[in-house]
Amino acid sequence: MARRRMIYEGKAKILYEGPEPGTIVQYFKDDATAFNAEKKDVIEGKGVLNNRLSEHFMTGLNSVGVPTHFIKRLNMREQLVKACEIIPLEVVVRNIAAGSMSKRLGIAEGTPLPRPIVEFYYKDDSLGDPLVSEDQIVAFQWANPQDLDEMVTMALRVNDFMSGLMFGVGIKLVDFKIEIGRLFEGDFQRLVLADEISPDSCRLWDMETGQKLDKDIFRHDLGNLADAYTEVATRLGVMPKKSSGTTGPTLVK
Which domains does the chain have, with CATH numbers? Predict the structure, then answer.
């Protein structure tokens, strides 16, 4: 498709004006960042993998009744999505203690939690995306109580779907973050899952070995990030297993 006007460039994606009103083209970059962009690199093929994996997850969620902004994949790096107003919060669901929760609460990484825990973080890179309470969210009018109830319900439904999907291919869904947007349709609005779901936004561990298959590999220099994402894509059937004699990954069309 012809290149259109750029709307926004973030750490991992570029947003372009869509071909029709109310649509956006989401382009996945190969850039990898960690620690609030203090660590940066370019991982060849990462954007292609995240595009295909996010398509896979969003399509599955749509099929089970979780509304998303996803419309269709356009090519190897771009997908068409519905334009929506992003609520300035990251919604994190945790099944196992890891990352900032372990550091903040002194819980050993890998400790199963008694139930999934939903946390909210205010989206502001200059502040380091701080953890915020529901009272703060309502007081500062980032979302109202009804929105919050709906966001928690949506996040837990995503967790149920993603946990089952990953369990079926031998992967633990440790935690993940999502973004939620307001989609305006005439005089009405509804909340939809937006942005992306990929190994960039999830912690994924192999169930048998505990091997990390997510961006922690890049954060902590644990190996090749593209290989880990390829492993996830292969297990999920997004990418076929390489047969002998092949010279690199071939994505399913």
Answer: 6-83+224-235 (3.30.200.20), 85-206 (3.30.470.20)
**How far is Cα of residue 94 from the mean position of the Cα atoms in its chain?**
14
Cβ-Cβ contacts under 8 Å for 125 (sequence gap 6 or more): 36, 37
Tokens of 222: 């644990």
Interatomic CA distance for residues 217 and 74, integer angstroms: 29
Tell me, rounded to whole angstroms, the distance of Cα 29 from its chain centroid. Answer: 14
Q: What is the pLDDT of residues 85-114, one digit of tens each?
A: 999 999 999 999 999 999 999 999 999 999
Structure tokens at 196: 């992306």
- Does pLDDT of 240 surpass 90? no
Rounded to two decimals, what is the model's pTM? 0.91
Answer yes or no: is pLDDT of 243 > 50.
no
Write down the residue that tokens 């999830």 correspond to: 202
Tell me how far apart the alpha carbons of residues 170 and 232 are, in angstroms, rounded to a whole number: 10
What is the DSSP track for 132-174? E-HHHHHHTTSS-HHHHHHHHHHHHHHHHHHHHHHHTTTEEEE
CA dihedral 4, 9, 14, 20 (to 10 degrees): -40
pLDDT 10s digits, 13-57 = 999 999 999 999 999 999 998 887 778 999 999 999 999 999 999
